[in-house]
Amino acid sequence: MDGLARGQHFFRRLVVLACSRMSRFAAVGAFGAVLNLLIMAALLGGGTHYLLAAIVATELTILSNFLMHERLVFRDVRGARPFWQRLIVSFSFNNIETLVRMPVLVLLVDLLLVPSVVAQAATLTIAFLIRFAFTTRVIYRTRPAASRPVPVAALQEEQQS
Fold it and tell me: Is 94 exposed, middle or buried (0-12, 13-18, 19+ CB in 10 A)?
């Protein structure tokens, strides 16, 4: 297999791995979003204010999503950081993201008169790509293995073979 063919093979495998991980991340996110909306709807049914219901639902699903990510999405790269560090970084990021998302929710519900559960669904959808990028690049990033420089003579020899 020549260098170009190896590069193409590597690239294809990388794309499959990334799409597979993103698909699993999306599935966990979809499950979490449905769970979030069900919790919020139940709290609204019990008379809770929509903003408090959204926050409680979000906190519960932040934790459940993290646990599902650990088990289903990033099982192969969990060793890069200790569990508690991953949990704290994930929980912190998702709470900051929630603090940014809540004013948008208030804007949609109070000013634009969008139903609260629909507005919550919209804000969760928008946040998906940001969460995926942060989670893969920060929480579960893998450190590249230290590589040794290959002498130029060895590369020339390989190309001639």
Answer: buried
